[in-house]
Write a structure and sequence with these properties.
The chain is mainly alpha-helical and 126 residues long. It has 8 helices and no strands. The protein has 2 domains: 81 residues, no CATH class; 45 residues.
């Protein structure tokens, strides 16, 4: 924590770092199953790790607020715009369907942005 303070980083920036770079695959689990992953992973592990770095206990509500702040900060840094599609969807645009087909790219992008905006709104509301 002293390193974070000496560099001028806020204490809440440790939570996204734990999520992204932890030895436990938090990120992979939540990306694969975003709606059900919270049933499988106890927040106690994340709260204990974060609390050990911060030197104080972290409650569930505080952890949720830290997550909301991280999402808001990421949106601010990215200019508030949603990306058209995640990179993993655009690297190989070939179909896995046996028949050749044409992708409705514009409709897919619009649908993705709509669903992503709903997710972000749900995070802000709860």
């Amino acid at each position: 924590m002293a390193t974070f303070n000496s560099v001028g980083l806020g204490k809440n920036l440790m939570a996204p770092l734990l999520f992204e770079r932890s030895r436990f695959p938090f990120k992979q689990l939540f990306l694969r199953r975003p709606l059900t992953a919270y049933h499988w992973v106890s927040t106690k592990l994340v709260r204990c790790l974060l609390g050990s770095y911060r030197g104080e206990k972290v409650g569930v509500k505080e952890l949720i607020n830290i997550g909301r702040e991280a999402i808001s900060m990421r949106e601010e840094l990215n200019g508030g715009e949603l990306p058209p599609l995640p990179q993993r969807f655009t690297l190989d645009a070939s179909s896995q369907h046996p028949k050749e087909s044409v992708f409705p790219y514009r409709k897919l992008v619009e649908r993705y942005q709509f669903l992503r905006a709903l997710d972000l709104a749900r995070y802000r509301r709860s």
